[in-house]
Amino acid sequence: MQRRNFLKSFSAAGLVAGTSITQKALAAADYEGPIFITLQARGGWDVTSLCDPKTSYVLTNRDGTTENILVNRWSETLEIGEVTGSEIKYAPFAQNEKLFTNHAEKMMILNGIDMQTNSHQAGTINTWSGRFSEGLPTFTALVAQAYGQGLPMAFVSNGGYAATSGIISPTLLAGNSRRLRDLVTPNKVNSNSLSDTRNFIAQSNLSIINQFKQDRLDRLLARNGLPFTQKVLNQFSSAQSDQNDLQYLQDEILHGRDENGDDIVGEVTAGNYNATLSYNNQFLDQIELTLAAGAANLMVAADLTTGGFDTHGNHDNSQANALRTLTDGVDFLWKKAEALGIDNRIRLVISSEFSRTPKYNDSNGKDHWPVNSMIFMQKPGAVATTGREIKYGKVFGASSDGHRALQLNPTDLSAIQFGSEDENDPKPTLQPKHVHRVLRRWAGIENDPFSELFDLDAGDLNVEQII
């Protein structure tokens, strides 16, 4: 299907919000470059049970006595996992082993990110824009404006933090795959079953009804009405004639499904998930519609979001459920992208607003903790038409056994072990502003006019060592 027709149908069906469909936008060239996606783990994930694994540490009290603090209960029976031939380590928790076994070759990890806040709002802004206070656009907004001029869906938001500072308009995906099926096949009794052929109205009768509707529209178009009325009628006629083109997006979403609508792309089936995930799960809907827009060459960047990480009580069970949803979603994303033929274009970033305390509270929960991590993912060997490749299997930044951000040597980024810092010559910690310098270099937009306008003031660490 033509990109122009897909776009008109996609918008006319109400699946996007906040998008102005102009003739200039419809005429814009297809975008075939990298697709940048951030996955926002809302609530504060526990990276000590994911990509910066911790077991226990010795706490020295003010009176000089010491005590052993348990960071994670899984460490009482399980060992930290290691990826062969890589610097990456992971916690043997939830379904982490599956994620790192299947996808570690695509990863680069930044640990020990000093968030300098325990606030959800400040942490969210800092993680995704590089500064505590509002005023800077997110990384996805920056990269979308750099490469998506003329694309009406250059920046897709799925409801997470999506500040743009006025440099681009985000497109809010307001639909889901179930709703899309209903729109594409409104006459089907059960649009979510490929095998159920029952219709509300016999197809022969529906054809007669549609012909009467078209004849009436043609009569209205033939009248010499006011210019605005004529414009609206033309737009309606165009949307009506292109309604069948919604099948394009439907086909992308149904790619790899069985007759019951269950996803059979690789191992991605609802039955393989411990978390309650199926094709109509909200998180998977985000992924499917976002990747469909990317496959249609309409999108440069997008934000995905999933929650459940604010585990002040019942931490182990609740955090495990949230992590399973996240890691299974990541697995689904890569397999779905491969099925759509765009996995070599995907650039994925995963993080949260902060992490959790390196100890349990009285409610068996963990509270807010200002040390974070970020996972970068890119398929090895992917053609880098813009930007740079990550350093696969590498880990930059570090935290102590008690999960405190370590100072780094500004030149080679080597970690200065906790307790051996020079009080007279303190070194910087890795902070979100440095991380966003890395992100901008990764995308090749560090010299973009808007990147220079929204300066990060982060020259005290040599991030060129990272990317």
Describe the protein.
By secondary structure, the protein is of the alpha/beta class. The chain has a single domain (about 35-180, about 245-465), classed as Alkaline Phosphatase, subunit A. The chain is built from 13 helices and 17 strands. β5 (about 80) and β6 form a beta hairpin. The radius of gyration is 25 Å and the shape is globular. It starts with a helix and ends in a 14-residue tail after the last helix.
Outline the secondary-structure elements:
Blueprint: H1 3-12, E1 16-17, H2 23-26, E2 35-41, E3 56-60, E4 66-70, E5 81-82, E6 89-90, H3 96-103, E7 107-114, H4 120-129, H5 139-147, E8 155-157, E9 171-173, H6 177-184, H7 203-222, H8 227-241, H9 246-254, H10 282-295, E10 301-306, H11 315-340, E11 346-352, E12 355-356, E13 368-369, E14 371-378, E15 395-396, E16 407-408, E17 415-416, H12 432-443, H13 449-453
Parallel strand pairs: 2-10, 2-11, 7-15, 8-9, 8-10
Antiparallel strand pairs: 1-9, 3-4, 5-6, 7-14, 11-14, 12-13, 16-17
Count the domains.
Answer: 1
Helix content: 25-40%
- Give me the CATH fold name: Alkaline Phosphatase, subunit A
CATH level-two architecture = 3-Layer(aba) Sandwich
The strand line-up of the biggest sheet is 1-9-8-10-2-11-14-7-15
The SSE order reads HEHEEEEEHEHHEEHHHHHEHEEEEEEEHH
Brief write-up:
The chain has 467 residues and is an alpha/beta fold. The chain has a single domain (33-180, 245-465), classed as Alkaline Phosphatase, subunit A, CATH 3.40.720.
